[in-house]
């Protein structure tokens, strides 16, 4: 057995000493799993998820001890991960009734659920508010829902937060939240204050942007603190929520593919928590809430697939594998994820070809890796890392049902099925056949 690693040419293997999964995988081990579960599957490393969560929280609490993490369910709602967040004392950050119900189903108390998102039905708002969840309003239509709920339940205190929209120095204007600069924010505050049993207890922001730099978070935090100071009494806000969008841990090959440097957990803490610590030195300080998803989940999953054919079409070399682009990059981005090749071949030559690794669908753009430089053979297995963000939640049953998820304990080499292979029945059960 030759454990082939391509540590050069943008194909790095393990990016830190803690990556026990990649250090312990062998062709024999992966082949045995493939014989039982199929030639394409995910591997979940829950220990890595726990480490990420605790390290990110630790960097912030060392500066501002009233920091809490609200895990973004929409990034990866595998119940095992969501349960772990609850056991670690974190919040569930949900953006739909489905995600809210999942949180409740796995035992998250409502007062540890943050309900965000642009679309909420009145019955969903009512259920969450009356149960004591933290609801951040996003649009003015929700105001009428609040009025109706408050009138129906006059003895209940309805605690809400407001999503703030302000200039963060980018050309693209976000469509979410209340415009702080245009007067909409002031109006919604006045309207909510007129509802006797409604309390504004927090403010929230989240910008879906590619600009995840330290400078961007410094600006966001500064603006949120200015909003808190300008519109609310010091003891009124119980929390200030900075949202998510943070970089996670990246290998060198990934870092090279981004235009700007990727900040570390400590970099983010120094840019955000430090401002809170200086602003709220004494007294009853508000809670700082973060909503990480990718930052804690991305590097905790791997995708394994098998090389089933190698061919040359004119000048193009392609390797067909048993997965597809939706399994690893459902947003169809151009990033080449770190990979490792497991092979039983003993190569005696250093000759390498440039190969496009392509997938099982009938789409021309189904390319998992462009320009791989290395040796591939029929029967090899390829392990893609950093696939823990959005793959599970955005992976469609397009042509092929979704593959299984296996939890792997690198210490014992034991495997556990977290999500089984989807079947025809799973895909078509809601249809009338």
Written account of the structure:
The chain is α/β, with parallel strands linked by helices. It has helices at residues 20-24, 27-37, 46-61, 79-87, 97-105, 122-131, 141-152, 184-193, 214-231, 252-255, 265-279, 294-297, 325-328, 391-394, 424-428; strands spanning 40-44, 67-72, 91-94, 113-115, 134-137, 158-165, 178-179, 198-204, 239-243, 287-290, 301-313, 316-321, 339-342, 353-358, 367-374, 381-385, 405-409, 414-419. The strands form two sheets. Strands 1, 11, 12, 13, 14, 15, 16, 17 and 18 form a nine-stranded mixed beta sheet that branches. An eight-stranded parallel β-barrel has the order 2-3-4-5-6-8-9-10, surrounded by seven helices. The termini are far apart.
List the helices and strands and how they pair.
Blueprint lengths: L19 H5 L2 H11 L2 E5 L1 H16 L5 E6 L6 H9 L3 E4 L2 H9 L7 E3 L6 H10 L2 E4 L3 H12 L5 E8 L12 E2 L4 H10 L4 E7 L9 H18 L7 E5 L8 H4 L9 H15 L7 E4 L3 H4 L3 E13 L2 E6 L3 H4 L10 E4 L10 E6 L8 E8 L6 E5 L5 H4 L10 E5 L4 E6 L4 H5 L5
Parallel strand pairs: 1-17, 2-3, 2-10, 3-4, 4-5, 5-6, 6-7, 6-8, 8-9, 9-10, 12-14
Antiparallel strand pairs: 1-11, 11-12, 11-16, 13-16, 14-15, 17-18
Helix pairs in contact: 3-4, 3-11, 9-11
Number of strands: 18
> In CATH's first tier, which class of the largest domain applies?
Alpha Beta
Structural class: alpha/beta
Helix content: 25-40%
Q: Which architecture of the largest domain does the CATH hierarchy give at level 2?
A: Alpha-Beta Barrel
Task: Quote the beta fraction.
Answer: 15-25%
């Amino acid at each position: 057995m030759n454990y082939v690693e391509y540590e050069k040419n943008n194909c790095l293997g393990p990016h830190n000493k803690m990556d026990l999964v990649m250090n312990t995988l062998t062709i024999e081990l992966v082949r045995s799993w493939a014989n039982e579960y199929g030639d394409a599957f995910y591997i979940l490393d829950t220990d890595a998820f726990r480490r990420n969560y605790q390290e990110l929280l630790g960097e912030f609490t060392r500066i501002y001890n009233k920091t809490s993490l609200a895990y973004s369910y929409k990034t990866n709602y595998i119940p095992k991960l969501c349960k772990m967040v609850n056991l670690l004392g974190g919040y569930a950050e949900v953006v739909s009734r489905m995600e809210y119900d999942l949180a409740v189903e796995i035992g998250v108390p409502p007062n540890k659920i943050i309900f965000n998102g642009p679309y909420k039905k009145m019955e969903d708002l009512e259920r969450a508010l009356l149960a004591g969840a933290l609801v951040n309003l996003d649009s003015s239509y929700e105001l009428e829902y609040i009025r109706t709920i408050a009138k129906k339940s006059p003895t209940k205190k309805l605690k809400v937060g407001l999503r703030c929209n302000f200039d963060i120095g980018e050309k693209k204007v976000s469509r979410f939240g209340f415009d702080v600069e245009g007067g909409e924010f002031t109006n919604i505050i006045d309207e909510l204050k007129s509802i006797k049993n409604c309390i504004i207890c927090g403010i929230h922001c989240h910008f879906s942007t590619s600009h995840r730099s330290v400078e961007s978070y410094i600006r966001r935090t500064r603006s949120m603190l200015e909003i808190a100071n300008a519109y609310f009494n010091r003891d009124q806000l119980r929390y200030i929520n900075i949202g998510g969008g943070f970089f996670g841990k990246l290998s060198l090959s990934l870092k090279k593919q981004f235009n700007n440097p990727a900040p570390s957990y400590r970099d983010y803490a120094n840019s955000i928590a430090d401002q809170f610590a200086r602003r709220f030195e004494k007294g009853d300080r508000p809670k700082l809430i973060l909503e990480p998803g990718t930052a804690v989940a991305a590097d905790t999953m791997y995708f394994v697939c098998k090389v089933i054919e190698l061919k040359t079409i004119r000048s193009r070399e392609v390797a067909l594998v048993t997965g597809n682009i939706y399994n690893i990059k459902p947003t169809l981005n151009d990033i080449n994820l770190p990979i490792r090749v497991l092979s039983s071949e003993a190569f005696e030559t250093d000759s390498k070809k440039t190969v496009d690794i392509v997938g099982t669908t009938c789409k021309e753009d189904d390319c998992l890796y462009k320009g791989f430089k290395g040796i591939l053979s029929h029967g090899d297995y390829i392990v893609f890392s950093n696939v823990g963000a959005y793959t599970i939640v955005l992976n469609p049953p397009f042509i092929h049902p979704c593959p299984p998820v296996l939890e792997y304990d690198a210490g014992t080499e034991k495997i556990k099925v977290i999500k089984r292979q989807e079947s025809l029945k799973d895909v078509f059960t809601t249809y009338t056949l």
